[in-house]
Amino acid sequence: MIIENTFIGDLKVIIPAVFGDNRGWFFESYSEIKLRENGIDIVFVQDNHSFSAKKGTLRGLHFQNEPMAQTKLVRCTRGALLDVAVDLRPNSPTYKQWFSVELSAENKKQLLIPKGFAHGFLTLTDDTEIQYKTDNFYSKEYDCSIRYDDPEIDVDWGGKVEPILSDKDLNAPFLKDAEVMF
Questions:
Q1: Mean per-residue pLDDT over the chain, rounded
Q2: Sign for the pseudo-dihedral over CA of 123, 124, 126, 127
Q3: pLDDT by residue (tens digit) across 116-128?
Q4: Domains of the chain in sequence order
Q5: pTM, whole model, 2 decimals?
Q6: Of the listed 49, 132, 142, 148, which one is catalytic?
Q7: Is 132 one of the annotated active-site residues of the chain?
């Protein structure tokens, strides 16, 4: 397992060691011991699994406010997606900056997103599945979102994007109007 730091503190790309032969492949998608050896001490309590039928589906940018904020360990298990994390911690030197990485079933990369970040993704293929672990349970009361196209954040979703959106994401507030409590 290789853990790569990004330019945003505590946001990490995790690349598993994949062992393959004529039968296929095997890898550890999660190892508490290996993460702890790399200074990551997180207890995950919930697994989530999402399917998007069409290329161009955009989900996000989502987060949960304190006290129900979540750390996420995200991976794509079918298809490919552009995964995005936005730093919403007002005291962070990278406040309002974002990071993106392509996650796919083929590259098997994962993104570790700490508390205090919004998360979203854009599917790059039809029939895309994403799975992620969280260290806190879902809470409708603390669930929040901000617009995917907020000009204050200016995420590059890979060119001109006419995404397929839920009503929730289409009507999400801009950051300046959102209630962010980190």
A1: 96
A2: negative
A3: 999 999 999 999 9
A4: 2-18+41-177 (2.60.120.10)
A5: 0.94
A6: 132
A7: yes
